[in-house]
Amino acid sequence: MRNLIVDIGNTVAKLVVFENSEPISEELTSNTALEALPDVVRTFGPARAVVSAVVELTAEAREALDALAMPVLYVTGQTPTPVPVLYRSPATLGPDRLAAVVGAVTLQPGRPLLVVDAGTCVTYELVDAAGRYVGGNISPGLDMRLSALREHTARLPLVAPMGDLPAMGYDTETAIRAGVVRGIQFEIEGYIRHYREKYPDLFVFLTGGNRLNFDTRLKNCIFADKYLVPRGLDRILEYNDHS
C-alpha cells in the first residue's frame, strides 16, 4: 500500500510517496497552493494520506487537500504515536517536531536519541533510554540569524549563507558567514557533547534543509536522513490506521 505524505513547511511543501515504509518519490511544491499534488496522486495512486503543516493552511491548500479521494490524517502534537510524549503542552508541539522523533525511533529503537533539525529554526529533540520523547529546544536557523544581523544593526549587510567560510573572517562578509555558520555548528556540537555525557550510547540524527557539514570527530556519531520527518509521518499514519 502506498501512503502520501504532505509535509507543509515554512517555505515549501514536500510531497513524498512511501511504499512498504520506504520513500519512492519526492516532489517539492508551493506551501500555499500545493500545485503538484494532483499530478503526484495521479502518478502514484496512494491509498491514504497524512498531512503535517507548520503554517496556517491557505484556502488554496485546503481546497487541494479536501479534493483528495482518500482518507487523510492531519497530524498535530496531540495525535497518538507509538512514542510516549512527555511534552507538557502537546497542543503547541509542532507536528514536524513530533514526526522527526517518531522517524528517529523507527530507525533506531531502544536507545537514547538526539534529533537535530536544521531548517528555518534549529530544533533539538531528546528521546531518553526508555524510548520516551522528553522534549526539545528551539533556536533561530541559518537564514533567520543572517537576516537578524541585517535587520537589527545599522550597517551590517545581508550575507548569503553559501561562500567562503574561513575559521575567522577576514572581512565583514566572511566574519558574518563564519560567525553564523560556525556558531550553529558549535551549538549543535555542544548539545551532542552535553547529552553524550548523560547517555554514552546517544545516537544523533541530523535532518533539515540546512544540514551542515561536520569536520570534527563528532561526525562519526551523526546520521543524516533527509526523509526523517516524512518517515515519521508515514509511521504515525500506519500506527493510527492499525491502532
N-to-C CA distance = 17 Å
Shape: globular
The CATH topology label of the largest domain is Nucleotidyltransferase, domain 5
Strand order of the largest sheet: 3-2-1-4-5
Main β-sheet description: 5 strands, mixed
**Which second-level CATH architecture of the largest domain applies?**
2-Layer Sandwich
Please state the structural category. Answer: alpha/beta
Uncertain runs with pLDDT below 50, 5 residues or more? none
CATH superfamily of the largest domain: ATPase, nucleotide binding domain
Specify the number of helices: 6
Let me know the average pLDDT: 93
Kindly state the percentage of residues in helix.
25-40%
- Report the portion of residues in β strands: 15-25%
The succession of helices and strands, N to C, reads: EEEHEHEHEEEHHEEH
Say how many strands there are: 10
How many domains in all?
A: 2
- The top level CATH class name of the largest domain: Alpha Beta
- Rounded to an integer in angstroms, the radius of gyration calculated over CA atoms is 19 Å
At a glance:
The chain is α/β, with parallel strands linked by helices and 243 residues long. It has six helices and ten strands; from the N terminus they run E-E-E-H-E-H-E-H-E-E-E-H-H-E-E-H.
